[in-house]
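Run LLM class flavin-dependent oxidoreductase through structure prediction, thanks.
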Amino acid sequence: MATATNPDRIVPDIDPAAIQLGLDTFGDVTERPGSTPLAGEHLSHAQTIRNLVDQAVLADEVGLDFIGVGEHHRVDFAVSAPEVVLGAIAARTENIRMGSAVTVLSSDDPVRVYERFATVDALSNGRAEVILGRGSFTESFPLFGLDLADYEVLFEEKINLFSELLKDEAVSWTGTKRGALDQQWVYPRPESGTLKTWVGVGGSPQSVIRAAHYGMPLFLAIIGGQPAQFAPYSDLYRRALDQFGQAPQPIAMHSPGFVAATDEEALEILYPYQEAQTNQLGRERGWGPYTKEQYFASAAEDGALYVGSPETVARKIARNLRLLGATRFDMRYSMGLLPHEHMMSSIGLYGREVAPMVRELLASEVAAV
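Sure, done. The structure for LLM class flavin-dependent oxidoreductase is below.
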């Protein structure tokens, strides 16, 4: 399928029945219920984690397809061991798939990652997924005694080993940053024989090609700019899969968002939390102050922030799934200190109203062709 803006692009048709709508979270520490916004009254890490499990239970109840839990090792995020949280989610849910968002493979051991997710897979009756990435923070490197100078080689070697672990056979492997394996089995074994594993990419062509080389599905993390800027990456991925002789694989996308009854309500509720979080990161990374102009530009139809009424958010998701030829959209629903009750309300609207509307929009376009 060519697109209106670029008739030379070849984008596969989307089967509306195959579309998946999910969520992900970094386990952001949040404000206490009823506190003055941004007044410094925060929940404990422990309560934030318990609330996260309740959020996943609601996501399951409203029919969403996936819940992803990120990994960080800093004070503003509560989750440093996502697989433990996923185990708790597995015990309290029935249908929703679950995974990392992302697993920072560079600073972990591939064998232990495989073992932990195979355990979550067992607890959830085969609902576990792994999203491998390098992460947008680097605090795990000094914490685990790793040298940032090895950033590239660590990820390259570890994803190579992980790809071998996914095969249902004994593994022999040699690298430079961990001990070799010689005909080694790793347990427990997933009942299906393997773990569904994605590669999370934030905008590097080399990472896109790496995902295609290993025949792993591609997960595009679109947290700024415009989704249209990522269309070349989805095109590159499909071409690379073909050149590597790999079977076609799905593409998914992740972006932040918030749903409320109206556009005005959603924009008003989210702004102070989005501003505070962006400015905190800006102070760490040398960005300038976040402005309302930037906020509204990101929330516009061609921006990367999915904030608004169910109809507004659904139309934006459907548009960008078509644009990228993707079959899954995960919304990051935890935004800085945004309170638990706002997140629960947004999750409910996203599952009950946005998800079916996205499928209806895509189905109506198929029927019109």
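The mean pLDDT is 94.
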